[in-house]
């Protein structure tokens, strides 16, 4: 099952699969000699280590489900030659590339080469699999794996300790705590009653004295 937060994000994604609103970009500027083979192995390890990075969310009997791919693949990281002037355009194109969560795993990666000692790696995650706090452990795991691979001449795997919990474990705990819309738990019933009462008769919009009019179309 999906967590309630994932269900909301999944619905918004399927409402408009062309928008990059829920993309989370991470751009890493790399200086010095880059072992692209080791980096590819490190990305593969990262994707295998974290289930949300190799999960799609197709419909099953009319409801979104988590499909965790048991053997995810990482496309080869072939560096794209570019210049300082062109690089921002490449990064913008990467970070605005949309996802269709029913078929796309929630991570896009691209590698750009400015010269032999300067590269830029872009990682774009969808919010259904990550949030702002995810970027620090993601970067840590990627750099740890890359360091381990470059320390071995034959690119042997680093054998990291697996995470003690996965997001799927958390999702199951949430469902036990909250139940379902058809069969809510007492905790959910209490919260629903409170907020339904508290939010009764609130206005559709707040008449705040803003200095700009509300746009006709969403601009984010």
Give a written overview of the molecule.
With 220 residues, this protein is of the alpha+beta class. The chain has two domains: 4-163, Chloramphenicol Acetyltransferase, CATH 3.30.559; 164-199, no CATH class. It is 35% helix and 17% strand. It is built from six helices and eight strands. The protein has a four-stranded mixed beta sheet, covered by helices on one side. A two-stranded antiparallel sheet has the order 2-5. Strands 3-4 form a two-stranded antiparallel sheet. α2 packs across α4. The protein is globular and about 65 Å long. The chain starts with a helix and ends in a 22-residue tail after the last helix. InterPro entries: CAT-like_dom_sf (IPR023213), Condensation_dom (IPR001242). It holds the Pfam family Condensation. This is Non-ribosomal peptide synthetase. GO terms for molecular function: 2,3-dihydroxybenzoate-serine ligase activity; phosphopantetheine binding. Residues 201-220 are annotated as: Disordered.
Briefly say what this structure is.
This protein is of the alpha+beta class.
SSE diagram, text form:
Layout: H1 4-15, E1 23-31, H2 36-49, E2 55-56, E3 59-60, E4 63-64, E5 67-68, E6 80-81, H3 87-95, E7 107-115, E8 118-126, H4 135-150, H5 167-178, H6 186-198
Parallel strand pairs: 6-7
Antiparallel strand pairs: 1-8, 2-5, 3-4, 7-8
Helix pairs in contact: 2-4
């Amino acid at each position: 099952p999906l967590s309630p937060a994932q269900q909301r994000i999944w619905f918004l994604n399927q409402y408009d699969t062309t928008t990059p609103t829920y993309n989370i970009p991470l751009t890493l500027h790399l200086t010095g000699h880059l072992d692209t083979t080791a980096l590819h192995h490190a990305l593969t390890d990262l994707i295998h280590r974290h289930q949300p990075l190799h999960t799609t969310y197709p419909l099953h009997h009319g409801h979104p489900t988590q499909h965790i791919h048991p053997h995810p693949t990482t496309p080869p990281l072939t560096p794209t030659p570019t210049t300082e002037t062109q690089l921002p355009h490449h990064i913008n194109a990467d970070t605005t590339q949309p996802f269709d969560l029913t078929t796309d795993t929630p991570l896009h990666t691209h590698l750009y080469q400015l010269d032999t000692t300067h590269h830029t790696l872009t990682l774009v995650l969808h919010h259904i699999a990550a949030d702002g706090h995810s970027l620090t452990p993601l970067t840590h795991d990627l750099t740890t794996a890359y360091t381990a691979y470059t320390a071995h001449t034959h690119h042997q795997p680093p054998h990291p300790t697996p995470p003690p919990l996965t997001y799927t474990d958390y999702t199951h705990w949430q469902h036990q705590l909250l139940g379902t819309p058809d069969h809510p738990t007492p905790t959910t019933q209490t919260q629903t009653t409170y907020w339904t009462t508290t939010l009764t008769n609130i206005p559709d919009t707040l008449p705040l004295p803003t200095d700009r009019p509300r746009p006709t179309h969403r601009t984010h």
